[in-house]
Write a structure and sequence with these properties.
mainly alpha, 17 helices, 0% strand, Growth Hormone, Chain: A, 411 residues, MFS_Transporters
Length: 411
């Protein structure tokens, strides 16, 4: 009589599937990277959107839809399994590059970003959940560092590539052909090679009273009641608020100083590149040093970097500023996800990740709206200064309210 072997947890044990999911998350990041440089310039130069608030509607649509989809991704992953959600996300992403290539008006761009938000919410959330399932409690920081590094290095590489393609061949269609290739490859790998990981979470959970948590209880706990979870949620929201600002307004700000498209592309790519590569170290460091102070210091460093962007007026100054912004974000991004993994019980962890990512990616929408209104009223520098102040306040809230969550550091 054959017996079913229980899933084994650990990075080394599940290395092949883990690395496959890292590669797939790089493709997810590439889908986002195709827009980072080209779309703000497309809004201004092709569709002649003169108001910043109107130009940033694509980020508003993307952020709002991605935030909501993150929430459902966690719930659906618990209910139906991780792999079906991942495959569904790639199917939804297939039309995005084609809509951007053929868009005759700005409404098509908004529609493409609604689909992109759904794609990112389903695919990125699910790869995060699956990696947490596989590695177990000991190496979550490292796992999240590798996951987020892959995604944001791909954002940076694609942003750089699309900047050069746009300079050489125009804003359309060449830059978006990369996205079409990423979507096709991501769908193929997810369908044919990825294995389901929900059983790993069930094995880690065992039989405990936590399994009876309702989705409403998980939402309330993660958003408001539990100090570490709610602190992570507010810090995630503000982190992506300033990323929404950087995505939508930095290319336009740099263009006002008559920087070349190649230099704008370099600045736009350097920020996620530093963010991406540095997470290879910061995720692992959070396993060694703990979560709380890395998050606090990262938020404060982001605030300083944004202030330098607002005060700068040259390529060299902005080069330093966006590098510091990327480093500060790298200190925060994987560490916040590791915090959720530390505190949330395996039985409801996927839903907690979904709630956290609901708040975090809601920051894109808040950032686009706030930055657009402030920039229209008082100019881009005022918008950047305001977001810098909000980012500093978020870091201080984390310092005051959060406790250390790493299993070894909080004994």
């Amino acid at each position: 009589m054959s017996t079913v072997r229980a899933p084994r947890l650990g990075l080394r044990t599940n290395l092949a599937q883990f690395l496959l999911l890292v590669a797939i998350n790089a493709l997810v990041g590439g889908m986002l990277g195709q827009e980072r440089i080209v779309l703000p310039l497309l809004a201004e130069q092709t569709f002649h959107l003169t108001a910043y608030t109107s130009a940033l509607t694509f980020i508003l649509a993307f952020g709002a839809v991605k935030a909501a989809t993150n929430f459902f991704a966690g719930t659906w992953s618990d209910r139906y399994g991780r792999k079906p959600v991942l495959v569904a996300g790639w199917l939804i992403g297939l039309p995005v590059p084609l809509l951007l290539i053929w868009a005759p008006n700005w409404g098509w761009v908004i529609a493409a970003n609604v689909l992109l938000g759904m794609n990112q919410g389903l695919t990125w959330s699910t790869t995060v959940i699956m990696k947490i399932d596989l590695v177990g409690p000991a190496r979550r920081g490292l796992a999240m560092g590798l996951n987020e590094a892959a995604g944001y290095v791909a954002v940076a590489a694609t942003a750089m590539a699309t900047g050069y393609l746009a300079a050489e061949y125009g804003l359309r269609p060449a830059p978006f052909l990369l996205g079409a290739a990423f979507a096709a490859l991501g769908l193929g790998l997810s369908t044919l090679a990825v294995r389901e990981t929900r059983g790993h979470a069930h094995h880690e959970a065992g039989r405990t009273e936590h399994q009876g948590m309702t989705t409403r209880q998980v939402f309330t706990l993660t958003s408001f009641k539990e100090p570490a979870l709610s602190s992570a949620s507010q810090a995630g929201l503000v982190n992506n608020l300033n990323d929404g600002l950087a995505w939508g307004l930095f290319p336009i700000l740099f263009a006002t100083q008559h920087l070349s498209l190649a230099r704008i592309g370099l600045l736009g790519a350097l920020y996620p590149a530093v963010w991406g590569f540095a997470q290879l170290a910061t995720g692992a460091l959070s396993d060694r040093w703990g979560r709380k102070w890395l998050i606090t210091a990262g938020m404060l460093l982001q605030a300083v970097a944004l202030a330098l962007v607002a005060a700068g007026n040259s390529f060299g100054q902005w080069l330093v500023a966006v590098s510091l912004l990327g480093l500060g974000t790298a200190m925060v991004y994987p560490t916040l996800l590791a915090t959720i993994g530390d505190v949330a019980h395996p039985a409801w962890r996927a839903r907690s990740v979904g709630v956290y990512r609901l708040w975090r990616d809601g920051g894109f929408a808040v950032g686009a709206l706030l930055a657009g209104i402030l920039a229209d009223l008082w100019g881009i520098p005022v918008a950047v200064w305001t977001v810098a102040a909000l980012t500093a306040a978020s870091g201080l809230i984390a310092a005051a309210r959060m406790y250390e969550t790493h299993p070894r550091r909080n004994r």
